[in-house]
Amino acid sequence: MTVNNLGLLPCGPAATELQQLNGYKVRMDGIHFRNHVYGCEELVPFIGERVTFYVDPKNASRIFVFHRDKYVGVAGLMDERSQNDRRKASILAFRKRKGGR
Fold it and tell me: Alpha-carbon distance 95 to 99, whole Å?
């Protein structure tokens, strides 16, 4: 999958260098992949949804996330404290989006 007419993902390597992974569910704290968690603010509207992402096998510090073939954003590798902070923020944003408390 490409995003622009040059065949490049935003801020990233050529699409041919990336590994595509399908069907990963966005959780409250991010996307879980290979015993790591990746997160970014752009994922919040997609909590509970399945996404496709691309990862550079040589540099797995970030992933390029898509939902139904539309670019969502770049999710970065998160440490444990960031995961907890992201989970709390995501829960609040998710509840607000759903109209709950």
Answer: 6
- With beta carbons less than 8 A apart as the criterion, state whether 83 and 39 touch: yes
Two tokens at 19?
């590994």
Compute the distance between CA of residue 40 and CA of residue 48 in angstroms, rounded to an integer.
15
Q: Domains of the chain: which residue ranges?
A: 15-96
Q: Which pTM was predicted?
A: 0.71
The tens digit of pLDDT for each residue in 15-71 reads 668 899 999 999 988 999 999 999 998 999 999 999 999 998 888 999 999 999 899
Write out the DSSP string of the chain.
Answer: --SSTTSB-TTS-BGGGSEEEEEEEEETTEEEETTEEEE-GGGGGGTT-EEEEEEETTEEEEEEEEETTEEEEEEEEE-HHHHHHHHHHHHHHHHHHHT--
